[in-house]
Write a structure and sequence with these properties.
Shape: globular
CATH superfamily of the largest domain: Metallo-dependent phosphatases
Distance between the termini: 69 Å
Strand content: 25-35%
Structural class: alpha/beta
CATH topology of the largest domain: Purple Acid Phosphatase, chain A, domain 2
Helix content: 25-40%
Number of strands: 15
Radius of gyration: 20 Å
Order of helices and strands: HEEHEHEHHEEEHEHEEEEEEE
């Protein structure tokens, strides 16, 4: 009788643990909005609001992507920055195109490639599509935009997946050479781990994705169990980092859900709202 009771208790504990993990994994699929504020303007100047979208991987966010679109519209951004892997190499383009075609009709949108665009062997096709609907595609380029009297230089570089180190660095040099130190200088890139390179430039803001917050994010210490290109205990996975040269780097956890093999854990998908004040 005692043995049966012990087995019954063990089963209850095991099922309880499994239920916890299942519920928490489902909860970790719910997107959130991360907010970051940067003081880069004078007291008399109006602010600029950026929404950062990364690593969508063409995942589904409700009929016509309404769940995600409403969340972005609610923030009333001045510009949208798309930092790579907006498309996927396995999931079709439908969800990405629905989102992009809605956003580009309301906000200036800037896009750089991620590694999955190159893995699809259709990166050029994807860039052509983005340009055809009005998205600014940045590949070693810099575009200047004025918002509420503030002048921003928005630079962007391709993912290094299909480039040599020299070609990737040449893109970064070419983009940076078009900036003005009196402007707010922004770099849109897919890779957060290239910190040792970014520290050689005076960008005010660098935005990136790619890491998926390590897929399983470790609470309290803000590290990821494993992130691509960073390995175990990945450091640059989520939120704001101040680099040694004073540049601010914001890394998004991204929006990937059904595209990933492992479930997200302690790691909600997110859009990031960056207020430059």
């Amino acid at each position: 009788m005692k043995k049966k009771n012990k087995k019954h208790k063990r089963r209850k504990i095991i099922w309880g643990i499994l239920a916890f993990f299942i519920i928490w994994t489902i909860w970790s699929w719910v997107p959130v909005t991360e907010r970051i504020s940067l003081n880069l303007l004078g007291d008399s100047e109006e602010g600029v609001r950026i929404v950062l979208v990364t690593d969508l991987h063409s995942c589904y966010y409700g009929k016509n992507q309404n769940w995600l679109i409403k969340r972005i519209d609610k923030e009333n951004p001045d510009i949208i920055l798309m930092a790579g892997d907006i498309f996927d190499d396995k999931i079709g383009d439908k969800n990405t195109k629905i989102l992009v075609e809605d956003l580009v009709n309301k906000y200036p949108c800037y896009y750089v490639t991620g590694n999955h665009e190159y893995w699809s062997n259709r990166a050029d096709e994807m860039k052509d599509y983005m340009e055809s609907v009005g998205v600014h595609v940045l590949a070693g380029d810099c575009e200047t935009i004025t918002i509420a009297g503030n002048t921003l230089d928005i630079c962007g570089i391709d993912d290094p997946n299909d480039l040599t180190d020299k070609e990737w660095k040449d893109q970064l040099d070419a983009a940076y050479s078009k900036t003005d130190e009196s402007h707010i200088r922004i770099l849109v890139t897919h890779r957060p781990e290239k910190v040792d390179v970014y520290e050689n430039y005076d960008f005010d803001l660098i935005v990136a994705g790619h890491a998926h917050a390590g897929q399983i994010r470790i609470p309290f210490i803000n590290k990821g169990v494993y992130a691509p290109s960073q390995g175990f205990m990945a450091e640059y996975v989520s939120g704001l980092y101040t680099l040694s040269n004073g540049s601010n780097m914001v890394v998004s956890r991204g929006l990937a859900r059904e595209s990933t093999i492992a479930p997200r854990f302690f790691n909600h998908p997110e859009i990031v709202v960056i207020d430059i004040n």
